[in-house]
Specification:
Layout (H helix, E strand, L loop, with lengths): L6 E5 L3 H12 L3 E5 L3 H20 L7 H8 E3 L3 H5 L4 E4 L5 H14 L5 E4 L6 H4 L9 E5 L9 E6 L8 H10 L3 E6 L6 H17 L5 H10 L1 H4 L5 H8 L1 H11 L11 H8 L19 H22 L11
Parallel strand pairs: 1-2, 1-4, 2-3, 4-5, 5-6, 7-8
Antiparallel strand pairs: 6-7
Helix pairs in contact: 1-3, 2-3, 12-13
Length: 324
């Protein structure tokens, strides 16, 4: 599927909104961007085309990407002009509820009544933002991650008043730009940030307690369980490790932190019911026994290829030149 023939408005043309505009244009959509004033919008359009040239030179974008983005992304004179006749609107203004409310009042009043409107918010409840939207049933969260051209996951977040009928179309659009949508309920932190900040909190406590330096915590994360995460989520990893093993580890940690590492209810129920993961034919995910050898082969190949990629790229330029 492509987005040819579709017109999309992106309100907020900074690095998040601009990156979203780029991937929409590369998927064939006609994209109108708008920002706080016309001069800012035009300057950001120039930046997007220049970025596309640099990305294409580095083989991060297709060779024709600069021409596609220059031809399909247009600087609108105002928010209202951007959304006039648009099939979909993505709001990507600063993460302040007052700014979002002000912008979305104007956008939803100017857009056609059936235009679906998404917000790229990463932290604010969609239902709260929806208070400023005319016809809030056509409003939802469509949360891309930074840098938008290169991060594949997108949270699709319906609030209590969202019309469920709009969700499949939004998910199709997300897939059309080469991303992977995940349907999320409207909850504080959604999924991405709730998990991301839980990890950061625990990592910070390890440093504060003197268990390891920030550099060594980062090394452990990216070379152990973080190494698995591009291929498997936490439930698939747990199933392969064995849910009985996970329960034992929780119980061990409870000797020091009984509340912080209380055994999750779902984990305990699975173990009590004999659902121990792939070794028992199912756990959080159902993997038929006959597919386990295929899964193990995929896992081993994936990890070996990841190690090769890391070796090819070399270390990230985080420290001084002499430290690398």
């Amino acid at each position: 599927m492509t987005l040819e023939g579709r017109t999309v408005a992106v309100i907020g043309s900074g690095y998040m909104g601009g990156g979203i505009a780029q991937v929409l244009a590369l998927a064939g959509a006609e994209v109108r961007i708008a920002d706080i004033d016309a001069d800012t919008t035009r300057a950001n359009l120039d930046r997007l085309v220049a970025e596309a040239r640099a990305f294409a030179a580095e083989d991060l974008f297709p060779a024709d990407a600069p021409d596609a983005i220059a031809g399909r992304v247009h600087a609108a004179e105002s928010f209202e002009a951007a959304v006039d006749g648009a099939d979909f609107v993505e709001e990507a203004v600063p993460e302040k509820i007052g700014i979002k409310h002000e912008v979305l009042r104007r956008v939803s009043a100017a857009a056609a009544p059936d235009t679906v409107i998404g917000s790229n918010t990463s932290t604010i409840l969609i239902g709260r933002i929806a208070e400023a939207v005319e016809r809030p049933e056509r409003f939802l969260g469509v949360h891309f991650s930074n840098p938008a051209p290169f991060i594949p996951g997108v949270e699709v977040i319906a609030h209590a008043g969202t019309d469920p009928a709009i969700l499949p179309g939004v998910e199709e659009m997300v897939r059309a730009v080469g991303k992977q949508p995940a349907r999320i309920s409207d909850a504080d932190g959604f999924v991405l940030n709730r998990l991301q900040y839980a990890l950061f909190s625990e990592a910070s406590q390890l440093v504060d307690e003197g268990v390891a330096s920030a550099e060594d915590v980062d090394t452990i994360v990216r070379t152990t369980f973080g190494f698995r995460l591009p291929f498997f989520g936490p439930f698939a990893i747990a199933d392969m490790a064995g849910l009985d093993v996970y329960r034992f580890c929780f119980e061990s940690l409870q000797g020091r932190w009984p509340e912080r590492f209380a055994t999750p209810r779902a984990l305990a129920e699975h173990v009590e019911n004999g659902r121990l993961g792939t070794k028992s034919g199912g756990g959080f995910l159902d993997v038929p026994a006959e597919r386990v050898p295929e899964l193990v082969a995929y896992r081993n190949k994936a990890y070996a290829r990841m190690a090769q990629l890391i070796d090819e790229l070399g270390p990230a330029p985080l420290g001084k030149e002499g430290d690398r």
